[in-house]
Design a protein that fits this description.
Blueprint: E1 4-9, H1 16-30, E2 41-47, H2 49-52, H3 56-62, E3 74-81, E4 90-94, H4 98-108, H5 117-127, E5 131-135, H6 144-157, E6 169-171, E7 174-178, E8 191-194
Antiparallel strand pairs: 1-2, 1-7, 3-4, 3-6, 4-5, 7-8
Helix pairs in contact: 1-6, 4-5
Length: 195
């Protein structure tokens, strides 16, 4: 993946951090994938390192992530889904609500070529698909039967798909900057900001 990415993670103390990590480990093992990664929702990608250098933390802290008045960022899980794409082989679909769209639009504007507010908003509304990947793999799209097996495994781990349940998503969280132009096993945040 070219450049760096901005990811949304659960709050540090949220139990979903460890639960979702376990789900990724189990899904990777079940489908024989070598790829393990931090549970996240990609807000935007393709950020050249020159944009956030030499001080990634200062750059992240300076981003205008919220409008006036600020909009709450709510993450709500809906269902499991699979696509042919490597990074969307198996994922939890996320309800596309106002706060998520707003922060996706604002982060997209830091990508060269997307500075225009109207274009960034169009992208966030029409193109961006919020999701939390559980599996990166070169295998074919996952069958409905296998998705049901993984859904049970995910629910057994504690994830809920019932809204208003503490384990069906989170409020707020952390935005992290990750150099995703490196190999997947080196994807670690280089800056973090609580929201």
């Amino acid at each position: 993946m070219p450049g760096s990415s901005l990811w949304l993670l659960p709050p540090k103390s949220h139990p979903l951090n460890s639960i979702l990590t376990t789900c990724i480990q189990k899904a990777s093992s079940h489908f024989s994938s070598p790829h393990l990664f931090t549970p996240h929702i990609t807000l935007t990608s393709s950020i050249p390192s020159s944009v956030h250098s030499p001080d990634p933390q200062n750059w992240l802290d300076s981003l205008p992530l919220f409008g006036d008045p600020p909009t709450s960022v709510e993450v709500n899980f809906t269902h499991l889904e699979s696509q042919d794409a490597f990074f969307k082989k198996l994922y939890i679909s996320i309800l596309k609500e106002e706060g998520l769209i707003a922060i996706a639009k604002r982060t997209r504007r830091c990508v060269p070529g997307w500075e225009d507010e109207g274009e960034a908003e169009r992208w966030a509304v029409e193109e961006w698909v919020p999701h939390l990947s559980l599996l990166y793999h070169n295998c074919p799209k996952i069958s409905i039967e296998e998705i049901e097996k993984v859904k049970q495994m995910v629910m057994d781990a504690g994830v809920s798909f019932t809204w208003n349940d503490d384990l069906s998503g989170w409020t707020g969280g952390r935005v992290v900057l990750v150099p995703t132009d490196r190999p997947i096993e080196e994807w670690e945040p280089i800056a973090e900001r609580e929201i």
